[in-house]
Amino acid sequence: MDGVWRFAADYSAAGHAERWWSAELPGTVDMPVPASYNDLLPDERLRDHVGLVWYQTHARPPRSWEGRRIVLRFDGAAHDATVWVGDTIAARHTGGFLPFEVDVTDLLACGERNRITVALSNELSFSSMPPGRSHRTPAGTVSQALTADYFNYTGLHRHVWLYATPADHIEDVAVRTRLDGSTGLIDYDVTISGSAEVSVRLRDAQGGHVSSAVGAASTLEVPEAHLWEPGAGYLYRLEVEYGQDIYEVPVGIRTIEVDGRRFLINGKPFTFKGVGRHEDSPIRGRGHDDALMVHDFALLDWLGANSLRTTHYPYPEEALDYADRHGVVVIDETAAGMVNLAMDFGPRTGPPPETFGPEGFGAEARDACVRAARELIERDRNHPSVVMWCLSNEPDSAADGAREFLAPIVAEARALDPTRPVCFTNVFLAPPERDRITDLFDMVCLNRYQGWYVNGGDLASAELELRAELDRWAERYDKPILITECGADSLAGLHETAPTMWTEEYQSAVIAMVARVAEQHDAVAGQHVWSFADFLTRQEVIRPGGNLKGLFTRDRKPKAAAFDLRRRWIES
Ligand code: GCB
Q: What is the pLDDT of residues 227-269, one digit of tens each?
């Protein structure tokens, strides 16, 4: 269903009262799908619009689909979607970074032209996913921002599908892999809509038959298994057959374990060398683009990176499929960040309200985070590239109530997936003496900006302080430490012989300093640099044209730090 849809911004919130779904949308605006709408038109009002926008298209399924089950699927509709097929509401969904689908068999007429309308709201609250908040400006408009450092792009960000299956069909497939010596064990579990027999066949990467079984749940044995390894994403193919339906799942056999201070993949210590990134680019905003995705992965490979954190939300499934095929190690993050009012967001007078106090994140927000973890794990659990769930970015982990807020999220993740470790990323305001939640998690993940927000311009002190803090974490926890973020902003093209803040040289020096400290510390299991590329944020005095901590500019040109890192990562 991708392509150019009709579009109308609902500035006066008239769409519902005027039943915009029941006829052609007013106006003549076209909008590409997938894409964010914000930067598509030279229109400031649309860019910063808070409220509803409407998308509309038509579908004419072939008559040969008669008698089949027809499904309408949205891979990502940011953030709050209501979908009509003709005059009927077909679906409602909250959370723009995870898919939803709906059976529209009874709503669509095959061979006819069917109108499909989507109303999207980008209004933020503490329980929206991602969370944010709004305020009324002195000029009388509503302004809002995420409680996190990225622009609130909105739109039909990912592919939209209309597909058909047999009426009696496969609903879901879950796989888990284990190793017994050199034998791989694949536990599979198929959910079906009826009660006929399920059969499965496992093929190797060349299509050769490996093993087969009958039944909706069983274990397949793979003698002398070819393992999925970082950098070498070997995939088997599980073909599931159920009546007239057939579905295939790529399967990578590998194990993950945290053993004391080591992060083990297939029993071998793994050192993370990678980045955090944003789904962000000029014009299309957060809209998924296969060309950009392949290019970015190619640049990651050029850097010598072996891993990626899906900052700060679930990525499109195409990205995880790519990582599976190419052996890129992924830390998969929910959109539940930042649950933190101790960081300064938006205009206010007086001290910040307490993060988990009456004006902050309460039970509704916690339930939204639990749901976000559940939906993420249910979507991504079959991907071998995913080695850990990141359940929150920089929550207020030093605050009263942090433990009560985070513990149910951790419990949900562990119940759904006992095979993968879980983490959250720690903010510098919560050093080991103040943190209240790290014992709930498997790894110590630190976002650290010594040399930028702390000790800016003074790398000698930055290095001493970083070392000292790592020692304090290592003293307290027998867990691997991962530097999940580090870096400095740089203006591409700004140079000095003596590195000073904002130059490309200074950015390189900060990243090199953290690398040196990390390599010399035996509790540290790796370094992720923030960020892969420059990206758009809300407007702020510290964000000239956005966050400039990219190794690449927003249009993917390398800065000095990219060459530096490539030298270190390719050579080491
Ligand atoms: C962080 C956040 C990230 C920000 C970054 C920064 O710790 O996790 O979203 O963009 O700092 O550059 O301030």
A: 999 999 999 999 999 999 999 999 999 999 999 999 999 999 9
- The burial class, CB within 10 Å (0-12 / 13-18 / 19+), for 293 is middle
Model pLDDT for residues 425-479, shown as the tens digit of each residue: 999 999 999 999 999 999 999 999 999 999 999 999 999 999 999 999 999 999 9
CB of residue 280 inside a 6 A radius of ligand 1: no
- Give the residue numbers marked as catalytic: 394, 485
Q: Could you tell me if residue 539 is inside a domain?
A: no
Asked whether residue 435 falls in the same domain as residue 335, the answer is yes
Residues 132, 219, single domain; the answer is: no
Give yes or no for residue 537 CB within 6 A of ligand 1.
no
Predicted TM-score (pTM) of this structure: 0.97
Non-local (6+) Cβ contacts of 129 within 8 A are 79, 94, 95, 96, 97, 335, 336, 368, 369, 371, 372
How far, in Å, from the CA of 571 to the mean position of ligand 1? 28
126 & 153 share domain: yes
Domain edge (last residue) among 442, 462, 481: 442
At residue 401, what is the residue type? G
* In-domain check, residue 422: yes
Instruction: Identify the domain containing residue 183 by its residue range.
Output: 170-254
Query: From the CB of 532, is ligand 1 less than 6 Å away?
Result: no
